[in-house]
Design brief:
The structure holds two protein chains of two kinds. Chain A is built from 16 helices and two strands. Chain A is an all-alpha fold. Chain A folds into two domains: 96 residues, no CATH class; 241 residues, no CATH class. In chain A, strands 1-2 form a two-stranded antiparallel ribbon. The radius of gyration of chain A is 23 Å and the shape is globular. Chain B folds into two domains: 138 residues, 3-Layer(aba) Sandwich (Rossmann fold), CATH 3.40.50; 243 residues, 3-Layer(aba) Sandwich (Rossmann fold), CATH 3.40.50. Chain B is globular, with a radius of gyration of 25 Å. At the A-B interface, α9, α10 and α15 of A face α9, α10 and β17 of B. Chain B: Keywords: ATP-binding, Nucleotide-binding, Repeat, Transport. Chain B: This is Sugar ABC transporter ATP-binding protein. Chain B: GO terms for molecular function: ATP binding.
């Protein structure tokens, strides 16, 4: 039998309409809870949600939702790869930030021109993320260190290492802002005019994010590697008995997770800020954990979760116009995650019981007309 | 046992305690009816004291919040003295030996007011003098009017300690006997039954070609204990080699060593002509070793994956399941359908989760899977454990058919009928060593049983 944790991390599949019903119910529940909080604070919930919705549907905000969502989605993918085989890569945060620092410095040095520079930046980010995550994987395999502990500590080290690299080696002072040398104009990722009615462009990395999502799905469900990864996540003992080298899988999965994590900062670096400085977005790795839970590691589920999160994040400032603190959005995000976990658990129990009953019924029924049994 | 302790619900029948029928939904119900269970594996927190372990979960309260340790200590003292358990309440459990820990477990149960104690294989972890002490304690408890249900497969112990013996075989009560009027030999007969599986195929299919050769295989655990020692044997094509032994005498470790799941020292390990001692588990499997694991839930199945994914498990490098690095869904599904039909796996379809099938049908699926891909050697650990009689007969038939077709089989089982009926050669394992070779054609279950416990003269 699967444990609660297996189900929470989506290693157990949910079928049919229930898989959709659970998150929808969770969001509805979160809206209710948030409304109660707003009422207690003496604010008007309907007005607050109308404001959020109005703002969120304007073309400019939609582009912003997409752009932040792209980073959230890549982060969720990085986390989900680990979740699928029981690895908690809490270190996605440190991996993407360190990768972004190094990649920004590489890009700023402009050793190769144009598109080649974009490729070089992306590749260096992927490599740095992968190597940084590999440390945790190797520690787990050879020294039995829990990857939860090691990745959390590596996050702290990455923060220190990143600031040191920027201040001592890569940094240039522009006004008051210490950051890496800006990546030259010819190596900027072009935006896409996806949404009409606004001059703001959708980040070109949306294409990369979609491709990554597809690749994630193909690798996990259609390849032998993905099968072994999922088998290890579902039952390590069964995987060992089936000849899966769990040690190898741990290292490879950590490396994959880190490689994807390396890409998280790329939309920002190559499509918006063009350098790594103090303003570079932080905590995206932790957001990824929440979204992976919300989307149950499914590529489509996580995409929806990333957009929801991004929408809430981008619209929260609007609430201040109504004199509502924007932190109310964080309450809502937290409640969504908690209630979605509970909802999935309830749905899962219901489904298991239902399936066992169904199998029992289908096998019992043909006992009377023996011909039908052959059809089974 | 699980039903008596409220961990599982009976399908039918009733339980009466002191003459009144009861029904248990949870262990808490059983405890409140005065039934307590001492588990085979101790459930104690090492870093807490005896006192803290005993009261854990039923702490005496003072004024609603504070813990009343003084009252608890008094009560523990009383119980300990009344039954002569000699438990010291303030010692941390980590400082106690196995025998003491067991007494703490018993005290824990008594503390909760149990009048009926279930002891599940209590002597499995004890050395002989600790067993004597335990039996003294048990007699003390009985003198004070408690009832004890003592579960064991060690016959001499049962005879020594019990006032009445009930023999259960494959889930049915075989007999209830008085220990005064029964010998160890008679008890063994009742335990293993005398009828052999039928139809028995005695015409030998053993060839001269050695399929698996094992020389001086030794397995040590992480803490240096030797659990398998210098085991050597050959299995030829068409031969079933049975390993008889009381569980926990190294069978599981031997199998895992041959499968490459556990490190071992071995002088030679060859499959056909190939030296496989350095092969990975996957390579051994692909090289033609089929594996029916002892614990199908832990090692044989992904319970919450559909049947067709379970078909791939352990065969994820071979056709029809994969094509290069890609999973061949159509191929795997078609072959799962074939297994379901050929091996009579009762299921509404191949898309249901393995967990939804009954134990017998899960096992038939595993047998079917491990028989596919023309294995050279099949390792069958307790292949019919926990399956219904119909599935058992079917699995035996498949094993016989495969043996006739030249498959070499390593059979490990606790079911002596199964071992004697299917094996061409029988070896007895005791404390990790092969202690006897037995001719299955001439041996009786009783002789085999005594060889397994080390009581007999080795046949």
């Amino acid at each position: 039998m699967s444990g609660f944790l297996d189900r929470m991390l989506g290693r157990v599949r949910l079928g049919g309409w229930l898989a959709v019903a659970a998150p929808v119910l969770a969001v509805v529940f979160a809206v209710l809870i948030t409304s109660v909080v707003l009422l207690i604070a003496g604010k008007e919930p309907v007005e607050a949600f109308t404001t959020l919705a109005d703002y969120g549907t304007q073309p400019r905000s939609m582009v912003m939702t997409l752009n932040t969502g792209v980073m959230y989605y890549i982060s969720a993918l990085a986390v989900a790869v680990g979740f699928r085989m029981n690895l908690f890569n809490i270190g996605v945060d440190g991996q993407y930030r360190l990768a972004a620092v190094v990649a920004a410095a590489v890009g700023g040095a402009a050793v190769v021109p144009g598109v080649l520079n974009i490729v070089l930046v992306v590749v260096s980010a992927v490599v740095v993320g992968a190597l940084w995550a590999a440390i945790a994987g190797l520690l787990r395999v050879y020294r039995g260190v829990s990857e939860v502990i090691s990745t959390i500590m590596l996050n702290a080290i990455a923060t220190g290492l990143g600031s040191w690299l920027v201040s001592e080696h890569f940094g240039v002072l522009t006004g008051n802002d210490l950051g890496t040398r800006p990546i030259p104009d010819d190596a900027h990722m072009p935006g896409i005019p996806l949404i009409a009615g606004t001059p703001v462009l959708v980040n070109g990395f949306i294409v990369v994010a979609v491709l990554l999502g597809v690749a994630y799905w193909v690798v996990l469900t259609r390849t032998r590697f993905g099968f072994e990864l999922r088998a290890t996540g579902k039952s390590e003992s069964a995987a060992v008995a089936s000849g899966v080298s769990v040690k190898k899988m741990i290292v490879v999965t950590m490396v994959m997770s880190g490689a994807i994590a390396g890409l998280i900062g790329m939309p920002e670096l190559l499509g918006a800020s063009y350098k790594y400085s103090n303003n570079f977005p932080t905590d995206l790795g932790f957001t990824g954990i929440a979204i992976a839970l919300l989307g149950r590691n499914s590529p489509v589920g996580m995409a929806i979760g990333a957009l929801l999160w991004s929408f809430l994040y981008n619209s929260s400032n609007q609430l201040q116009l109504l004199d509502i603190p924007k932190e109310i959005v964080q309450i809502m995000q937290g409640v969504v995650v908690l209630s979605v976990i509970i909802a999935y658990e309830l749905v899962h129990r219901y489904r298991m019981v239902a399936e066992q009953r169904r199998v029992g019924r289908q096998l019992a029924a043909p006992a009377e007309p023996p011909k039908a049994e052959a059809a089974v | 046992m699980k039903i008596l302790y409220g961990m599982q619900r009976p399908d039918e029948g009733e339980i009466r305690v002191d003459g009144s029928p009861v029904s248990f939904h949870t262990p808490a119900d059983a405890i409140s009816a005065g039934i307590g269970m001492v588990h085979q594996h101790f459930m104690l927190a090492d870093n807490l004291t005896v006192l803290e372990n005993v009261v854990l979960g039923s702490e005496p309260r003072r004024g609603g919040l504070a813990l009343d340790f003084a009252a608890a200590r008094r009560k523990i003292k009383e119980i300990s003295d009344a039954y002569g358990l000699g438990v010291r309440p303030d010692v941390p459990v980590e400082e106690l030996g196995v025998g003491d820990r067991q007494r703490v477990e018993i005290l824990k149960v008594l503390y909760r007011g149990a009048r009926i104690l279930i002891l599940d294989e209590p002597t499995a972890v004890l050395v002989p003098h600790e067993v004597d002490e335990l039996f003294d304690n048990l007699r003390g408890l009985v003198r004070e009017g408690l009832t004890i249900l003592f579960i064991s497969h060690k016959l001499d112990e049962v005879l020594r300690v019990a006032d009445a013996i009930t023999v259960i075989r494959r889930g049915t009560t075989v007999a209830t006997v008085d220990p005064e009027g029964v010998t160890s030999r008679k008890l063994a007969e009742l335990m293993v039954g005398s009828e052999l599986p039928s139809p028995e195929t005695r015409e030998s299919t053993v060839t001269d070609v050695v399929a698996l050769s094992v020389r001086d295989l030794t397995v040590r655990t992480g803490d240096g204990r030797t659990v398998v020692e210098n085991v050597s044997f050959d299995i030829r094509k068409g031969e079933v080699l049975g390993i008889a032994g009381v569980e926990g005498n190294g069978q599981a470790e031997l199998v895992e060593a041959i499968m490459g799941m556990r490190p071992c020292e071995v002088a030679a390990l060859t499959l056909g002509d190939a030296d496989i001692s350095h092969w990975s588990t996957l390579r051994r499997r692909a090289g033609g070793i089929g594996y029916i694991p002892e614990d199908r839930h832990r090692h044989g199945l992904l319970l919450e994956s559909p049947l067709w994914e379970n078909r791939i498990l352990g065969h994820q490098t071979r056709r029809p399941n994969v094509r290069g690095p890609w999973i061949d869904r159509a191929g795997a599904r078609a072959d799962t359908q074939r297994i379901v039909e050929d091996y009579d796996v009762r299921t509404p379809g191949i898309d249901v989760d393995a967990a939804a099938l009954s134990g017998g049908n899960q096992q038939k699926l595993i047998v079917g899977r491990e028989m596919s891909g023309d294995p050279v050697l099949l390792i069958a650990s307790h292949p019919t454990r926990g399956v219904d009689i119909g599935a058992q007969a079917a699995i035996w038939d498949h094993l016989r058919t495969a043996r006739a077709a030249g498959l070499a089989v390593l059979l490990i089982s606790a079911d002596l009928d199964e071992l004697i009926g299917l094996s061409d050669t029988l070896k007895v394992i005791l404390r990790g060593r092969i202690v006897a070779d037995v001719d299955p054609a001439n041996v009786t279950p009783e002789q085999l049983g005594s060889a397994m416990t080390g009581a007999g003269e080795g046949v």
